[in-house]
From TrEMBL:
Organism the protein comes from: Candidatus Ruthenibacterium merdavium
Name of the protein in its database record: Helix-turn-helix domain-containing protein
Domain HTH cro/C1-type: 17-72
Matches recorded under InterPro entries: Cro/C1-type_HTH, Lambda_DNA-bd_dom_sf
A family per Pfam: HTH_31
Gene Ontology MF terms: DNA binding
Length: 126
């Protein structure tokens, strides 16, 4: 029974890791580099081939993917990104002018976006 439970947990971790990796547009190598592990380690986690996942590795991968280690291991149905997304959608729904702002910035380069964010933050401080 215990080995079956462990297998289910490993499969859940593998599924969520792959899901978030694809959603984030990251490669196995990019996650590995950012988490300080090898590409094959990330690949083995994603294939549920790690018998005993190491907490430090799970924490590192979760941080890179922007989710909690608990969510990555199967706890809860929502992750922080989904909750944040729902919050943004609600704000866009209530404040249509935010849609105009987002649409205007959609084609900005990364440096232009950083500049726009600084301007918006400066405006909110006044």
């Amino acid at each position: 029974m215990k080995s079956q439970k462990g297998k289910i947990e490993r499969l859940r971790l593998a599924q969520r890791l792959r899901q978030r990796r694809i959603q984030s547009g990251m490669t196995l190598q990019q996650i590995a580099d950012a988490a300080g592990v090898t590409k094959s380690t990330v690949q083995r986690y994603e294939q549920a081939a790690i018998e005993n996942p190491r907490p430090v590795v799970v924490q590192g991968i979760a941080a890179v993917l922007g989710v909690s280690p608990a969510w990555l291991c199967g706890a809860g149905e929502n992750n922080d990104l989904e909750v944040a997304f729902e919050d943004v959608v609600e704000k866009l729904r209530v404040r249509p002018e935010l849609c105009d702002l987002v649409c205007a910035a959609a084609d900005y380069s990364p440096s232009q976006l950083r500049c726009a964010v600084r301007v918006v933050r400066a405006l909110s401080e006044n």
